[in-house]
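worker-3 :: picked Cell shape-determining protein MreC
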Amino acid sequence: MRDTRESRLLLVLLVAVAFALITVDIRGGEDSPVDGARQAAAAVFGPIEDGVASAVNPVGNAVSAVRDSDERHDRLAELEKENAALEAKLGSDDRNRSRLAQLDKMLKTAGAGQYGIKGAEVIAIGAAQGFSWTITIDVGARDGVTRDMTVLNGDGLVGRVTTVGPDTATVLLANDPDFTVGTRMEASDELGFASGQGDQPLRVELLNGKADVKKGDRLVTFGSQADRPFVPGVPVGVVSRVDPSGGDLTRTLYVTPYVSFTKLDIIGVVVEAPKKDPRDTVLPAKPKPVPTPTVTVTVTPNADGQQQEQQ
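worker-3 :: C-alpha cells ->
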C-alpha cells in the first residue's frame, strides 16, 4: 500500500474501530458481542499455535533436561562427597579400633608385669640409611619420661629411651646394631645378651656354652641395676635357630623378636618398675600343640588263610 492521504485515513479508522471493539468486549464480559468472533479465530489459529508449540517444545524440553541434568549432576557430586566422607570416617574408625586394640593389649601386658607406664604415640622414625633404628614419641620430660627408661608395647620389648626433650623423646629400637639387652631363658634361667641386627633376628650369646636350648624356647629381659635401662620380665622373642655347640665358652642363638619394629604405633614408657621380678608371667600363652594323626595297622587272615593288612 502506497503512503497516501487515503491510506493514512484508513489506518486511523481501523485503529479507532479496534479500540471501540476492545471497549465493547471488556464491558460486555462473558456476554460480549465479539465472543463468537474470538472463538472462530481460536478455531482457525489454534491448530497453527499447537504446531508451533510442538515445534518449540522439544527445544524447551531439551533446556529443561539440561537443567535437570545439572541438578542431577550436582546431587551426584553431593552423594559422592557424602560417600567419600563416610569412607573416610569408616577408615578412621578402623584405625581407631586398631589403636584401641593395641592400647588394650599393652595395658594387659603392663598389668601382668606390674609396670607403671606412660602411653605414647610414635610420631616419627629415624633415618634408616644411617643404620640407626629409632623412633620419636610424643611424650617427654614434662610427662615424667627420662633417659634410659624401658619402652614396650603389647607384644614385648620395643627399646629404650636415649634422648628426652620437653614434649618428645627418642627411642633406640631393640633391633638396632648398637642395642644390647640382658636376657633370661624361660624355665632354665640361662642368661645371655641379645644384640640387634637390623631386619635380621636378634643375636643372643648365652653365657653357658653347654646350655640345653632348642628352637621355640622363649626369652625375657633379665633387668638392669636399679631397673635402668631395663626392667625385668619383658618378653623379648622366640629362639628360631641355635648354632651347634663347638666347646666355646658361650653359645649363639638367633631370636625372632615378638615386636614388629616396622609397625609401631602405640607404645608405653615404663616410668615405674615392678616391685618384684615378674619372671615369666608376662610371656604370652604358649600355642597348643597340634595333635599328629596316627595310623594303626592290623593284620587279619583272609578266607585262604593268608594274612591281609587293614588300616
